[in-house]
Amino acid sequence: MEVLKSYLHGAWHAGAGNGVPLYNPTTEDVLATTSTQGLDFGAALQFARRVGGSALRTMSFTERGACLAAASKAVHAHRESLIELAIANGGNTRSDAKFDIDGGTGTMMFYASLGRKLGEQTFLQDAPLQALGRAPRFVGAQASVPLRGVSVHLNAFNFPVWGLMEKAAVALLAGVPVMTKPATPTALLSYRVMQILVEADVLPPGALQFVAGEPGDILDHVKPGDCVAFTGSSKTGRFVRSLEHLQNASVRVNIEADSLNAAVLGPDVAPDGATFDMFCREVVHEMTQKAGQKCTAIRRIFVPIERVDDVVAELRELLAETVVGNPATRGVKVGPLTNAAQLSSVSAGIDRLRTHTEVVYGGDGRGELRDIDHDRGFFVQPTLFLADSPTHTGVHADEVFGPVATVLPYSGDPLDAASHIALGGGGLVASIFSDDVQFCSTVFQEAAACNGRMYLGSERIAEHATGHGVVLPQLQHGGPGRAGGGSELGGPQGLEFYLQRVALQGSKPMLEKILGN
What we know:
- It is a single chain.
- With 517 residues, the protein is α/β, with parallel strands linked by helices.
- It folds into two domains: 287 residues, Aldehyde Dehydrogenase, Chain A, domain 1 (3-Layer(aba) Sandwich), CATH 3.40.605; 211 residues, Aldehyde Dehydrogenase, Chain A, domain 2 (3-Layer(aba) Sandwich).
- The strands form six sheets. It has a seven-stranded mixed β-sheet with strand order 16-17-18-15-14-19-20, sandwiched between helices. The protein has a five-stranded parallel β-sheet with strand order 11-10-9-12-13, sandwiched between helices.
- A hairpin with a 2-residue loop joins strand 2 and strand 3.
- It is globular and about 70 Å long.
C-alpha cells in the first residue's frame, strides 16, 4: 500500500502515525494512506518566503511563463497514467478524468502564454506616467508588485489536478510561491502530479510545496503578506474567512465555494428546436458529469409552466440513457461519489428534497449499475425532482452535491426568472437558454449582480459553445454571496489577488528607468 508524502523544504517527508486511508470509491478498497503528523509547516512556509519567493521575484513574466509551460507539458506527458489513477481514486469515468486533467494542463498553458505577452518585466505598470504638477519632471504612476509572502492553497476533492494547477499557475506567474494542499480523499492524483513536477525539475526551489493529508496547523503559521485561497463548501469557507489569526494579520483570503447554480429556459423556446435540445442536454450533462460533484453543476432548473411537462419528459428520457456503474467500463457515464461521507451527505439531501418536491426520476438509492457485481462502492442514482412552486425554501437553500437537480416552474416573465435565481444566495454561474435577445438582456441585467458568470445558450452557438460548467482561464471564476465572493482566473485580472498595487512618484527620468519605460 502506498504512503503519500508531503514535499516540503525541497524534499519528501512522511508524516507520523497510521495516517488517513484513501479509497477506491468503486470497490471501497484502500489504495493509500497519508499523514501530516509531525511535519513542520511553519518552517516550510518560511522556506517558501525566503527561497521560493526570492527566486520568483527575480524572474520576468516571460521566464515564469516558461516554467509554467514546462510544467504543463511534463504533466500532459503522463496523461494516460493519470487518467487511470483518476478512475481508481476519484471514481471518474475516462471522460471525467480527462476533463480534470486537461483543464489543469490547459489552464497552466494559458497562463504560460500570458507570461510571454507580459514580457521581460518583473512587475506590472498599471498606468502610463502622468504629470502631477506644473513641472513636467514631477510625475507619478501606479504599479503592481508581487506579494512578499506565500500563498496557501486549500483545494477541493472533485478536481485534484485542475484545482492544483489552476491556482498554482496564477500565483506563480504573479511571482508568489505556493503551498498547495489537496483534499485528502482524492490526494493520490494530486500527489502523482507533484511527483511529476519534482522529477521534471521545472520550477525554482521553494516555488511549489505540497501537503498530502490533513491541514494541521498550516494556517496558524500564515503571516502578514501571505494569502490564502480556498475551494470547497460554503460552510468551511466561512470558517476559514472568520479565523481571527488571519484577520489580525490582514491576510488576503479568496473563497470559491459551492453554489446553487441555475439554468433558465426562455418562454420563446419550443420543444422541437435546437435551443430546447441544447438546454435539456446541458442540464443532464451538468447533473451527471463528475457524478454531479462540481461547484458549477446545475441544481435549479427554471422552466416556464407551460413547458414543464415537455422538459420533464425529455430529461427523464436522457437520464434513462445515462449509464451508471463501473467508471472503468466503456459506456458508463456516471461513476460513484468520492467517498462514504459524500454518499451519506447526498443521500440525506435527497431525503430532504423528497419532503417538499416530487421525484420524477431516480430516488431509488444505487439504481441499476453496469459491471458491478457487489454491494460495495459509493453509488447513487441520478435524481430529478419537480417542485410545484419556484420559491420552495429548501430548494434554494440546500445544495445536494451529487447528481441531483430540481425543476421549478415559473411564469415565463424575465423579472420572475431573475428574482428566483437570486433566491440561491449568490452563485458561480447561471445559464439562460433563449433566442429572444430582450428576454436574455432583462434576465442578465437583473440577475448578473448575484452571479459570477452568466452563460447565454442559443441556437446560434449550439454547435460551438463550451457549455455551462466549463471554467475558462480568460474569464473570472468565482461568484458573490453563497459562492464565496472570490474571483479567480480572468486572464491578467487573475493576477491581482497576488499583487500589491503601489503609487510611485518622483522625477520622470528616474521613474522611466525604474519602470523600464
